């Protein structure tokens, strides 16, 4: 095949390709916006990148090991004084 | 005496040819880049080693009956390995930044100009004697600009399997070079003021949106571009497994074990394509040049698109985030963040760059689908 003919095909492909990509992703933009509106009806929001505080320590209060260490220190202090 | 001669004939020394030796050197070079320079080591270690294995004389590992032949035949010729990796990438990808600011998809689209401009450039190279790229070859080479390894391998295996080795090596090498290739282009095309633009904080995204997003992308692919269905389909499956929250075991497997196992074999199979007669050609040189061009054009068009959007949009857009549209997740987004911080030390662009970054993954999958539909 002649190079010029190939070049014409490549140029054509470049044009259709870019139009295709833009069209597809533009449709996706509208779809995502519609999706957000749809999802906004009810549903609680979830914060991105914010770690929830670990529930372990809050549910059980101060860890048992800490209490043991503190009470040992207190009794030692009382014995010494 | 005859036995000794036969034994000599079976040694590597007697059968070693100069081209094979050079390819073993190329394999060692890739290993050096991976181990000493940390260039995409996950891929370049198996690729480099595969290149050495395939060039071992007498052993014929890449001939029918050899291990690498079957690994290639099963995994790449069929297109399965890149698709499995794409599922893992889907499971690793968080689309919140894109769902919160869907206009960023335009940046992912603009950066694909790198692909299509390079396609034209590859055909232009045919004017130089020694180059004879067909439209299929040119498309497979151009997809390097998508900065997405699995997509490049998938498309090359379908359109131009004989160039696959060079294309995969170029794609992964340039992805490792993103922090070197992109910043000068980004600085050149933007002013210091533009680079300091702070962007408004992204809104929170609900779980329902995140679950419905992959299903919606799949629906659009089904309606408008079925040729991209293998890539987009596997990507969406991985992402749905991640976001649905009900199949954590499957999602973790896709993100870790499966993607790792596949990476080992994908790398070996790509390495098996680095045979002397296919790699030591002037065309490989052309592919390396075109790959760098594709990356640069993609970066530039992303930045330009972001500049235009910044002018017309009511919300400020930092033009740097356009560079992340080439995909290469998450490297390109990190580069944007770094260059942004140079101009404004309080301006963290990482989350804003993740939007165009994941849009670039979708964009290059769509571009691959279009090329498959039109060129195949």
Automatic annotation (TrEMBL), chain A:
<comment type="similarity">
    <text>Belongs to the OadG family.</text>
</comment>
<keyword id="KW-0812">Transmembrane</keyword>
<feature type="transmembrane region" description="Helical">
    <location>
        <begin position="6"/>
        <end position="32"/>
    </location>
</feature>
<keyword id="KW-1278">Translocase</keyword>
<keyword id="KW-1133">Transmembrane helix</keyword>
<dbReference type="GO" id="GO:0008948">
    <property type="term" value="F:oxaloacetate decarboxylase activity"/>
</dbReference>
<keyword id="KW-0739">Sodium transport</keyword>
<dbReference type="InterPro" id="IPR005899">
    <property type="entry name" value="Na_pump_deCOase"/>
</dbReference>
<comment type="subunit">
    <text>Heterotrimer of an alpha, a beta and a gamma subunit.</text>
</comment>
<keyword id="KW-0813">Transport</keyword>
<keyword id="KW-1003">Cell membrane</keyword>
<dbReference type="GO" id="GO:0036376">
    <property type="term" value="P:sodium ion export across plasma membrane"/>
</dbReference>
<dbReference type="GO" id="GO:0015451">
    <property type="term" value="F:decarboxylation-driven active transmembrane transporter activity"/>
</dbReference>
<protein>
    <recommendedName>
        <fullName>Probable oxaloacetate decarboxylase gamma chain</fullName>
        <ecNumber>7.2.4.2</ecNumber>
    </recommendedName>
</protein>
<dbReference type="GO" id="GO:0005886">
    <property type="term" value="C:plasma membrane"/>
</dbReference>
<keyword id="KW-0472">Membrane</keyword>
<dbReference type="Pfam" id="PF04277">
    <property type="entry name" value="OAD_gamma"/>
</dbReference>
<comment type="function">
    <text>Catalyzes the decarboxylation of oxaloacetate coupled to Na(+) translocation.</text>
</comment>
<dbReference type="InterPro" id="IPR023424">
    <property type="entry name" value="OadG"/>
</dbReference>
<dbReference type="GO" id="GO:0015081">
    <property type="term" value="F:sodium ion transmembrane transporter activity"/>
</dbReference>
<keyword id="KW-0406">Ion transport</keyword>
<keyword id="KW-0915">Sodium</keyword>
Automatic annotation (TrEMBL), chain B:
<keyword id="KW-0739">Sodium transport</keyword>
<feature type="transmembrane region" description="Helical">
    <location>
        <begin position="12"/>
        <end position="35"/>
    </location>
</feature>
<feature type="transmembrane region" description="Helical">
    <location>
        <begin position="42"/>
        <end position="61"/>
    </location>
</feature>
<feature type="transmembrane region" description="Helical">
    <location>
        <begin position="67"/>
        <end position="92"/>
    </location>
</feature>
<dbReference type="GO" id="GO:0016829">
    <property type="term" value="F:lyase activity"/>
</dbReference>
<feature type="transmembrane region" description="Helical">
    <location>
        <begin position="163"/>
        <end position="181"/>
    </location>
</feature>
<keyword id="KW-0813">Transport</keyword>
<dbReference type="GO" id="GO:0006814">
    <property type="term" value="P:sodium ion transport"/>
</dbReference>
<dbReference type="InterPro" id="IPR005661">
    <property type="entry name" value="OadB_MmdB"/>
</dbReference>
<feature type="transmembrane region" description="Helical">
    <location>
        <begin position="317"/>
        <end position="336"/>
    </location>
</feature>
<keyword id="KW-1133">Transmembrane helix</keyword>
<feature type="transmembrane region" description="Helical">
    <location>
        <begin position="104"/>
        <end position="128"/>
    </location>
</feature>
<keyword id="KW-0812">Transmembrane</keyword>
<comment type="similarity">
    <text>Belongs to the GcdB/MmdB/OadB family.</text>
</comment>
<protein>
    <recommendedName>
        <fullName>Oxaloacetate decarboxylase beta chain</fullName>
        <ecNumber>7.2.4.2</ecNumber>
    </recommendedName>
</protein>
<keyword id="KW-1278">Translocase</keyword>
<feature type="transmembrane region" description="Helical">
    <location>
        <begin position="211"/>
        <end position="237"/>
    </location>
</feature>
<dbReference type="GO" id="GO:0015451">
    <property type="term" value="F:decarboxylation-driven active transmembrane transporter activity"/>
</dbReference>
<keyword id="KW-0472">Membrane</keyword>
<dbReference type="GO" id="GO:0005886">
    <property type="term" value="C:plasma membrane"/>
</dbReference>
<comment type="function">
    <text>Catalyzes the decarboxylation of oxaloacetate coupled to Na(+) translocation.</text>
</comment>
<feature type="transmembrane region" description="Helical">
    <location>
        <begin position="140"/>
        <end position="156"/>
    </location>
</feature>
